[in-house]
Amino acid sequence: MVGDLFHAGHVSLLREARRHGDWLVVGVLSDDTAASYKRRPIMTLAERVAVIESCRYVDEVIEDAPFQVTEQFLAEHGITTVVHGDDLSPEAAEFVYGPAAAAGKLAYVRRTAGISTTELIQRVLDRP
Fold first, then answer.
1. Exposed site from 16, 37, 73, 101, fewest CB < 10 Å?
2. What sequence ranges are listed for the domain Cytidyltransferase-like (predicted)?
3. Per-residue pLDDT tens for 60-109?
4. Which CATH superfamily is domain 8-126 in?
């Protein structure tokens, strides 16, 4: 995850992800990785990691996690299930989570409607 401007939608995602196992490992993408497919984060990687680590549902954070998950990465970190919001297309799931998707280890949780980092930024910009 990117986890920029950590908000209630992120908390909901992590709470639901935690229900898929007994240890929640969260991979946090670097600024450059996030910028390669969306905008550059407002918060630094260190700031995002600090906030995500403090969430009560999170047991471990992997800083600068890879954008594309490999079998080696899953094995190295003992990851048995990968969780993502349900806004991911099948093509994107295959591209980003290939081995986990192919092995049936990819679970989806409902995205929280009405809140996103992009929407929060727009709220700030729209304020008088």
1. 37
2. 4-123
3. 999 999 999 999 999 999 999 999 999 999 999 999 999 999 999 999 99
4. HUPs (3.40.50.620)
